[in-house]
């Protein structure tokens, strides 16, 4: 599994996450529906700051990208992480073991 996180400045709505093998961001609708994803999910957002996501069932030694969008009545910009590669034990992205991004509503 991959431990991902996104930081939001809006403490409301829903955070949608899509993990794909492509760096090209999916559309908002595709992220929400999981179209083209190897893993997708959503979770309620009730506070600002870091939102943690666990993407399970990913293949070992495979490169992925995580795409995030937050909806609190309207969609935020789509944010895509740097490429990360799963290993037998941890997820690595360079020297980091977590992917952190920021989502700003209305940016």
Would you kindly provide a written description of the structure presented here, covering whatever features stand out?
This protein is mostly beta strands and 107 residues long. The chain contains 1 helix and 9 strands. Strands 2, 3, 5, 6, 7 and 8 form a 6-stranded antiparallel β-sheet that branches. A 3-stranded mixed β-sheet has the order 4-1-9, with no helix packed on it. It is globular, with a radius of gyration of 13 Å.
Q: Which descriptors apply to this entry?
A:
107 residues; 6-stranded antiparallel sheet; 1 helix; 6% helix; globular; disordered C terminus
Structural category is mainly beta
Cα-atom radius of gyration: 13 Å
- Uncertain segments of ≥5 residues (pLDDT<50)? 95-107
Hey, roughly how much beta strand do the residues contain?
Answer: 35-45%
**Could you tell me how far the N terminus lies from the C terminus, measured between alpha carbons in angstroms?**
30 Å
Largest sheet: 6 strands, antiparallel
Number of strands: 9
Shape: globular
Mean residue pLDDT: 83
Helix fraction, binned, reads under 10%
Count of runs of 4 or more consecutive helical residues = 1
Order of helices and strands: EEHEEEEEEE
